[in-house]
Amino acid sequence: MKSVQKDASGHEQLSISSHEDDEFMIFLIITVLAWGILSVGMLGVEWGYSAWAQARLYTTAQFLALDSFSKSQNRKQEEAIIGMIMGPHSSTKVEEIFSRPGVTEIRLAKDFGWPLPSLLRGNSVHQPSSVLGVASSATAKLLPARQVGLPQSGHLALLGALPCALDKEAWETMSEQNPVAVLVNASGEILIHGKPIGHFGQLLTHIGQAVSDPQLFKPLQVRLDGYVPIFSKIGKINRVVGFGRVQIYGTYPHVWLRKQVIMTRSHNASTQLTGERPSLSQQDLAQVFSVNRKLKGAVLAPTLI
Which of 148, 192, 229, 279 maximizes the CB count within 10 A of its CB? Predict the structure, then answer.
C-alpha cells in the first residue's frame, strides 16, 4: 500500500508498505519455480528423445553387426537396413567398422534436428535448428550353432538337419580336404574300418537332445548335404553338442563323407535355443554348453556380445 507522509520539515514522502514487498517476492518465487519446472520438463523431453533415437540406432547397429557375416552383405544391403529402421532419408553414418576373424563391431552416429534449446548441451538460447548428436555401437561374434532348422526346398532352399549323427571324436579328427570312405550297415550304423563313428536315425535340431539308437537304412543311392548333429557322452547318455556341415554320397552300403568347415555365417542355424528344450540337470547342461563352445569345425552362427 502507498502512503504520503510529511517529514519534520513539512515535505511529503511516498512510502511503500511491507505488504507490497511480500507480493513482489511471491511473484519472483513463482517465476523462478515456473522456469525451473519448464526447464526440467524440457530436459525430460530431450532426454526421452535422445534415448528413443539411440535405441533405434542401437537396433540398426545390431542388424548390421549380425548381417556382416552374410556372404551377400554389401553396401546396398547395409543402406537398406539403415533405411528400414532409421527412415528412408536417414543421414546415419557408419563411423567405424572393426572386424577380425569371427568378430565384427559397428559404430553408428546420427545428428537429429531439435527445434528447442538443448539443455543437455548447455544451450540457454533458442536455436532454430539445434542439433542433437547420438551414437551407438554393437558387436557380434561367430559361435558354434546350438540349433538348426529343417531343410527347406523350393524357392527358398536352405540346408538343414540330416537324419544321422556323428561322434565328436571322429568328427574332429576327420580331414576336411579329402572325403572319407565309410560303410553303412543294414541297422544304420556308419563304420570306418569296422568301428562305428555314428549312425542314421531321427532328425535332431537342438544341442542337449538325446541321441537315439540306429534305425534301419537301405536306400540304393545316398546324396545328402546339410548339418549333421555331433554327439558326445554327457553323463551316461550320448547327447548333441553341436553341428557340422557334411556331404554324404555314394551307393549303399559304400558311401563317402566329406567334411566341410565354413568360417562364415551358416543360414538356418542359430546360437539361440527356441521351442521345447530337453530336460537336463544343471551339471549336464553346463557340460553341453562347454563342449559346444569348444567344438572344432562346427557350423557357426552370429550372436551379439
Answer: 148
